[in-house]
Amino acid sequence: MDPLRQLRLVRRHWWIVLVTLMVSLGVTALVTVRAQPRYLATVTYFVTTPSQGVSDAYQGGLFLQQRVKSYEQLLTSDRLARSVVADNQLGLTAEQVRGRISTSTETGTVLLRASVVDTDQTRALRVTEAVSAKFVELVKQVETRPDGSAGPIKIEVISGPGVTPSPVSPQPVRNVLIGTLIGLLAGVGLAILRGIADLRVRDGASLRRVTDSPLLGEIPLDNDARTAPLIIGVAAASARAEAIRKLRTNLRFVDADEPARVIAITSALQGEGKTTLSCNLAITLAEAGWRVLLVDADLRRSKVGDYLGIDSAVGLTDVLVGDVPVGDVVQRWGDKSLLVLPAGSAPPNPSELLGSKAMADLLLALRESADIVIIDTAPLLAVTDGVVVAVQADGALLISQHGRTARTQVAAAARALNAVSVRLLGCVLNMAKLAKAEAYQYEAYQVLSSSLPVDRATAGRHAEQTAADEPVDNAEELTRLSR
């Protein structure tokens, strides 16, 4: 993984780094507060030998350094600890005394330092004094020759015993620095792991790779879309509206040699915004002067009528079963060249109805009645309705919601279309996060509309008013549009 992607993952999951850092600092503070203060007592020895014992100075130095290493083991031996406990009332066992003693040497010298750490300052000093005295006696015993004469080694105390006036641990500043470093490293690692394990679609590049199709658009997230899903009124000047217009342009030129006139719009899962996008794409196409027919083929959960504010009690289902002619149920929306065929009543067998010969004949007739037919279909992974409709269209447009749909789900939806040789025109990333630079660039050139906001109810009243002011025979309108 390249460093740039790692940086993006850390930036995306910044809250993980923050939480981990706070937890690390909290644990560090708790451990520091609850830790008992410890004091350090030290004593330093100088190991030497009379000149008459060793003739060569260099060999004598090596000899002493080897002896110093041996004395380190002697300082932490059970023999010394037992001797200290036997002759001093310290309130400690031999094992406890031994555990408090540590040694160190300076490379290339014959200096030996013994250290004692204890929670009691006075006891630390007493143990060090006892260890110092017993160590000197023990060395003399070890180095005494068989004839009773003194050995070639002499131990002298050159520093101490002494104890620090303040505790050597805990050290709050050092602990905070270590806790901060651990928290940052752990947070960054967790953020990267979280990003690697996150299989959801979060950018257009990954969506394009998963579907193996062109990325035709990235529709930015618009919080106002919940209450005003259509890009009319003030919403027509939003960044979301401009992104849909770009999608309109890309869709019209995705294949100039074989343009798609009947387009099925679908998604992998429910709730990814395919119906809203279908309505808005139809509106933008109509605004550009195209004769557009929007068909609500999601017979299980039809929403086109709700968004556009039109009556959807009678529609596609009734046409397919032969109850009404298509011209009697197609409705014109607003003052644009946009016709809408609502879903109608909910059938018991949507898949069979959408895959019937009546549906194929209807699409053939609608193809001749409009420049572009937009079909809103059901999600691909939920039911088979979307695939059945997409097979009969010129191509399909796959919608995926940013941060919601998993890459495996998108791949499964693309495979479902490829399995029946559906022409996948491209993919769209919906509710994407707009980069600050892009948002600023758009706002810098934004031209605010003077229209008032129009919500769903206003859109419905607008459609009803148009129908009342200018009655339209839908059958004749379809015939006229086909010319």
Automatic annotation (TrEMBL):
Belongs to the CpsC/CapA family. Belongs to the etk/wzc family. Coiled coil: none annotated. Residues 261-402 form the AAA domain. GO terms for molecular function: ATP binding; non-membrane spanning protein tyrosine kinase activity. Residues 8-86 form the Polysaccharide chain length determinant N-terminal domain. One of its GO terms (cellular component) is plasma membrane. InterPro entries: AAA_dom (IPR025669), Bact_polysacc_biosynth/exp (IPR050445), LPS_length_determ_N (IPR003856), P-loop_NTPase (IPR027417), Wzc-like_C (IPR005702). It is a multi-pass membrane protein. Pfam families: AAA_31, Wzz. Its main location: membrane. This is Protein tyrosine kinase. It comes from Micromonospora endophytica. Keywords: ATP-binding, Cell inner membrane, Cell membrane, Kinase, Membrane, Nucleotide-binding, Transferase, Transmembrane, Transmembrane helix, Tyrosine-protein kinase. The chain crosses the membrane at residues 12-33. PANTHER family: CAPSULAR EXOPOLYSACCHARIDE FAMILY, TYROSINE-PROTEIN KINASE. It is found in: Cell inner membrane. Residues 459-483 are annotated as: Disordered. It catalyses: L-tyrosyl-[protein] + ATP = O-phospho-L-tyrosyl-[protein] + ADP + H(+).
